[in-house]
Each structure stands twice: as structure tokens, then as C-alpha cells.
Amino acid sequence: MATASLTGLFHVPVISYASTSRLLSDRSRFLYFYRTVPSDNLQAQAVTDLLVALKWHLVVVLASDNEYGRSGTTALKQIIQNHSTQHICVVVDELFSRKGSKEEMETIFEKIKQFPQAMVIILYAEFPDAKYFFEEAKTASLMNYMFIASDSWVGSTEVTQGADDVFHSIIGLRPPIVSMPTFDSYFMESLLKNNSVNPWAHECKKTLNCDEGNISQCYSGVHHDGYVPYVIDAVFSVAHALHAILNCSTSACTKKWSDVDIRDLSRFIQNVSFPGYSRQNFSFNKEGSTRGQYDIYHLRKGSLTYSKLGSWSEYSPNLSGILEHGTTSEFPVSICSNDCKKGVVLTSFPLLIREEIRDISCDWFCNGW
Fold this sequence. Notes:
Layout: H1 2-8, E1 14-16, E2 33-35, H2 40-53, E3 58-64, H3 67-82, E4 89-96, H4 102-113, E5 120-124, H5 127-139, E6 145-149, E7 167-174, H6 181-192, H7 201-208, H8 215-220, H9 228-245, H10 265-270, E8 273-275, E9 281-283, E10 293-300, E11 307-313, H11 320-329, E12 344-348, H12 351-356, E13 364-368
Parallel strand pairs: 1-2, 3-4, 3-5, 5-6, 6-7
Antiparallel strand pairs: 7-10, 8-9, 10-11, 12-13
Helix pairs in contact: 2-3
């Protein structure tokens, strides 16, 4: 956010391929900021829809004690609070850091164990913090919890390595991973060429310790984290905006850069529309973000790979695959109380009883009239 604030003072647009903070959607503060990934608000909506679909009413929310974690969980709690059709209760809501004390983690685990009915943990953490959490959870003997993973660590089995007892299974959401064979070919060619036009090829070979005899072996060790299409769409957004502002054709431009007011570039970026790599039709919304779209992945205890179960879009959420899988795999139950029979209503416990259980106002019982 500091970069977006600074460049905004000089009317210079910034296009991010990975920044998801909901605060960056505030156009009064970040008028020149754009991103090719959806904001945390949409991931929070997707998680809430997942909770509703699987009838998980009682949840634990844990997050990295940084901007990523705080922004994500703030958005999630706001959407949960405003949800009109189902009451979802957050019984434990804590921030943590791998740089924190063991005592702080022990306190969090004690709070979780006070609510044995809450078997779903939403872990909105960056990769190192998520790995640290599972290590500490194993030590604290947490067992068979259902985890919902944020986009930062979903897909990585390294996070849960050695901690299989902690989780029953994991469901996670992340922007779609798009195969990029053309980029892979280009990248390989860049490593093979001695005098590549790509200025970063030499540095890449140096970092990978490559020479002419082991280029292919070096390339096989490169892991693309799935953000390549989002980086390319960010670059293409600028290219299309420049093409328009300089009034270019396929062969020439009628304007020079010196004829252009830098303050106008942002407006042209806002209006770009083209066949993208991260999505079929790429464009920015009024907040400078893109349409919310996530793939939903599942990791079963004992498995080494995540499997794709479905997808979610802000316009057409599709959770049928998750619902079918939830039935056959018997996901853990995480509810305040069972559904009521006909002729009775769901009523909250008296205030005094709620106070005795630390003011958790989501304990309910069926009351016959």
C-alpha cells in the first residue's frame, strides 16, 4: 500500500498481480491502483457461501498478524455478520505470528479446545505462518479439524507436512491456475540463448547456477506459482492503454509520449478490455479490481495432492461438487445445534446462560410452543 500511496502522488498507475487487500479498493485513497486479482472482499464472500452451503454454523477464525491476515478476516467477519439467511458464529477470532511467543499460541489453542463443537478452522495466513501454525497445533494435540485455506497457502502440502493428525481435510480457494505452455517455451528459449533480448535471462541463469550443459535440468527445477497469467495481463493492460492513448494502429502511432498528460494514463487503463490470459475477457471494475473467480481445492488426510472440486464466481457460484463431496466424505459437523423438527422454533439460550459461556450468543435450542 505504501507503493500505491507514493506513486499516486505523482499520478503514476500501479498494477499488481498479487495484492488482494480490501483497503486498496478505496478509490478516494488509491485512485491510481489496479490489480489483476480479485480483492479480499470477494474471497470472503466465497468462504461465506461455502460455510452456508455446507451448513457450518460454528467456526474458528485465525489469521496472520499482518496486513494480509487482518484485511482478509475483517472482510470475512463483515460479510458473515451481514449474511441474511444463516447465522454463522465465530467462537474464536485470533491473530498470530511465527515470531510470537509460545505462550500466545498456547492461549489460542486453549480457546479453541473450549468449543469442541467448532470443528472448522478458517486459516487466513501467509505460507510461513500457516506452516508454523500446523507445527504448533501438532504439539498442542489438535486433531481432526476441518480447515478452510486462504489463497496464500492452498495447494501446498509442505504446510501440513508431519501434521496429518491435525486436520480431517482441507478446502481452499485461489484464483484459477491457467496453463501457460507458450510462456514455458519462451522461458526455456531465454535460458538457452547466450544473447537473449530478455534482460533478466542472464540473472535467472546465474541464480539457478545454470550453464550450457544443464539448462534443461535447471528449467525442470523451476516452479511457476500460478501467477504468471496475472503478471502477463498486468503488462498487457499497460500496453493496451498506451496503444489507445497514443492513438496507435498496427503499424504506427499518431501521438508521441511527450504529447500525453501522465494523469490521463490511469483513465485509459481503467477502460481496457481484451482477451486475457487469466480470464477470457479481461477488464477492470470501478474499484480497479477484476471479477471475483476462484477454484476450490480439497486435500484429504493422507493424500499428497489437492484435487479440484468446483469453482466460485461472484456472478455464478458453483458449489455442487463440494456438496456432493461433503456428503460422500462425511465432512465434520460444526454447528450450534441440530435443525428443529416441524412445530418448534430455534431459540437462543437466556442471556444469563450465554454469559456463563463467555457471551457466545450463538447457542440455540429447539423450543416447542
